[in-house]
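Sequence, please.
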């Protein structure tokens, strides 16, 4: 059972997301919060696996709350949901340590799948978000780095696949290896590159100029 909390300052949205996620047998909504500070307190009390967090909230916004949650409760993964398809939110969320970023116009099925993926350790970005990230790094003309030289060829392939937003299952299918092997390769990539999580790995690969 995956334990989930939801934070949003709009009561209808908050109740709607909680109802959608709470109706799924393998998800347990253990609490809701109307602002970022309440979210931080809620996570401290309930130790959820996933926090679904709105960006624009009073008292403490979703990005600042994510920074607190990730730093103080590393066992909780954050999925950012917002109505604003703006690049600064994507970058701020990634830098803050979020494990996923989706717009609020996603279907109920997609939201549930996103929570499951994030809980399983995958990183999730909407297709449009990933495309814009790649385009932005290409536009900035990032100089290729040697930071990935420590990786084996297979680890390099896995790192690139992670940076494309693939889940462990999708990587396993694409590379014809088992999911357990994928998890091992991802762990080695994180260790060798000094990355805290998959999000930092994605940023590292993008900044190395290796994904086009």
């Amino acid at each position: 059972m995956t334990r989930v909390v939801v934070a949003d300052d709009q009561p209808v949205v908050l109740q709607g997301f909680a109802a959608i996620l709470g109706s799924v047998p393998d998800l347990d909504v253990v609490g809701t919060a109307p602002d970022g500070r309440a979210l931080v307190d809620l996570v401290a009390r309930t130790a959820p696996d996933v926090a679904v967090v709105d960006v624009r909230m009073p008292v403490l916004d979703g990005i600042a709350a994510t920074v607190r949650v990730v730093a103080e409760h590393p066992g909780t993964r954050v999925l950012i949901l917002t109505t604003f398809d703006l690049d600064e939110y994507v970058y701020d969320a990634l830098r803050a340590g979020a494990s996923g970023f989706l717009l609020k116009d996603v279907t109920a099925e997609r939201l549930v799948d996103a929570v499951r993926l994030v809980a399983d350790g995958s990183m999730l970005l909407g297709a449009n978000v990933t495309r814009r990230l790649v385009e932005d790094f290409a536009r900035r003309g990032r100089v290729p780095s040697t930071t990935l030289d420590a990786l084996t060829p297979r680890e390099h392939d896995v790192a690139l696949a992670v940076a494309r937003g693939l889940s462990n299952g999708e990587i396993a299918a694409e590379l014809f290896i088992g999911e357990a092997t994928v998890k091992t390769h991802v762990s080695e990539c994180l260790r060798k590159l000094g990355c805290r999580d998959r999000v930092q790995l994605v940023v590292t690969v993008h900044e190395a100029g290796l994904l086009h």
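Residues 51 and 78 are 5 Å apart (CA to CA).
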